[in-house]
Each structure stands twice: as C-alpha cells, then as structure tokens.
C-alpha cells in the first residue's frame, strides 16, 4: 500500500469513557447496551450515534465490539471518537489486530488505560483504501457469522428433539424419577499438566484438553501429548462411551461435554475434564446424559453450585456426583441417541469449517494491516 501515514493511536481517535445507565436495561427492546464483552441488554435511550466501536475497559478489558446502530456504552467501557478522517470499520478491525487485551500495565487493578493505548502506532492508508480493506474483511467476517448461525440452528434442532422426547426437565412435566449421578457412574478427574514423576519409565500420550471438549462433540483438530507414568497412563485411560465434561472456566463451559468413541488410540484426559463412566447403560445412556448436563436444566444446576470469581465458574467432583439425573425409559434414551448422531456429526463438520474460516480471517487481518493484501 502506498501513501501510508504512521501515527499514534491517540492522534487518530479518543477513547471516551462510557456512562452508567440512568435506569435499568430491558430485554430485547430499544437500543443495544454494551458492556466490555458485548451486548448486555437494551435501553430506551442511546449515548452514541451508530455505527460505533466499543472497547472493554474493565472486566473483559481490551475486547473490541462493533455496533451497527445507535447504542449505549456503560461505564466499564470506552467508545471511540475519531479525531481524523478514518473509516470506522477499518479502525475497528485495526484495533482487533493491535490485541488490546494484552495491554495492561496496571498491577493493582487490571484494566485498559488510555495512556497505554494512545502511544500505539497505527498505519493509515488513503480513505478509499481503508474502505476497500474494511469491505473485504467485512465479507470474510460475514461468512463466519453465517456459519455460527447454522451451528445455532442445529443446536435448536437438538434442543427441540430433546424436549419432545423428555419434556422440560426444569419443571419435570413428564414426571421422571431423578437420582444422583454417583449411583450410576464412576467419576474421575484427569492428569495434572506438569506433574513430576520419579518413575524411570515415562510415557508420552495424547490427551483431551478443555479445547477438545465441545458441546456435544469433540474437536480433534489439534491433539497434544503429555508425559505420564505407566500407573497414571492406566489410571486415566479413556474407554469407549466415557462422557467427558469440562469443570468450567467461562460459565458457558459448565456442563459442556461429549461422548468418547475411541477416536484416538491410548488417549487420556487432563485434570480440568471430568470423566464419567456409566456402569450400567441398561439404565442410563451416555448420549442422553451428555445432553442432560449441557441442557438448560444442567446449566442451571451447575451455575447454582459452581464456585464463581470474576466471571470464572467451576464445579468440583462432589457437585458433579450429586447431579440429579432424570430416568426416562432406556428405550427412549436409546432412540434419542439414534436420532441425534447425524445432527451431531453435521455440527462437528460445521464447527471444523468454522475454525478454518476463523483462521483464514485472522490471517487476512494480519496481511491487511501489514500492507500485504493486494487491493485494486
């Protein structure tokens, strides 16, 4: 790109403090209200004429959000006010490349400070070129959005089939008996990463991480290995139809799980994943249980029981053992598994495609702002 001007970010735009709302937010009506990590509700008033860039200041600091309409930015955020002629969507993508999440020089209170971001260098090409780059990146981002929407549709289909078969478990409108999970399954945590061994023989084995365990399927695009003793290798060895559940982290990971079908030989699991081994599948089906823990019913239980600190929520072994499991007839549970296999496979394939789209988009971002993207 020719005619590039190199400026400090503070010369291009101001990071303006968001404001506390004058009244409570609503659900689903009015103008979007942005917190650090995206839309948190709606309000009858707006603070910023859209489109707008909102950046997390506290909490999920450094997150960069886009609003295509008038909106409100609350007091844990900044919103961007340009000082020079700059295409706002171009600036939005540039801020993503700058990775503001890594810029926190405060040791007392984590957050994004303006004095830290203003000295950052930004390359401005002509306004026309900015618009072209923003259009290309916008088209690529739209593909990612469409793929996410398709995955969400499959999730809705799975949910509707589950409710048709088993009703709403939150109110138990089909009057199923419930019993604690510990009566049906052997539960285990996994191996701790970095564990030191005195044994003379240590094995290097593939293992399942939190990133591998998605909602109803396994992402096996990257399998890492871990060093363990022969004793731990045997102890944590996964078996066919084990259910893998994440212990938490972000609240959306609570109860997230998938059934293991021996996709990788000699595989074990790490300590942030629980292994649930059903002892009698004539009473409880692994795929039915996986959906129970990941359903709104399961999420509600785990969120109620979880230890929560600054947006992080985790459950322990005792809480998982005490999870109340509904017990519909086993034939109905098996019928659900049969119907759901094809949908889950479609979801896995779509997720794999989504990951490739996201990787391509990140590459495109980097090339665009290094001057390596050919624009005509």
Structure description:
The protein is α+β, with helices and mostly antiparallel strands and 376 residues long. The protein folds into three domains: 5-125, Alpha-Beta Complex (Adenine-n6-DNA-methyltransferase TaqI, Chain A, domain 2), CATH 3.90.220; 126-161 and 329-376; 177-327, Alpha-Beta Complex (Adenine-n6-DNA-methyltransferase TaqI, Chain A, domain 2). 34% of the residues lie in helices and 23% in strands. The protein is built from nine helices and 21 strands. It has helices at 9-12, 88-98, 114-117, 127-166, 230-235, 286-294, 296-305, 317-321, 330-368; strands spanning 5-8, 13-17, 31-35, 38-43, 52-56, 64-67, 72-73, 77-82, 121-124, 178-180, 185-188, 202-208, 224-229, 243-246, 248-249, 257-259, 268-269, 273-278, 307-309, 312-314, 324-326. Strands 2-8-5-6 form a four-stranded antiparallel beta sheet. A hairpin with a 7-residue loop joins strand 5 and strand 6. The longest helix has 40 residues, at 127-166. The mean pLDDT is 90.
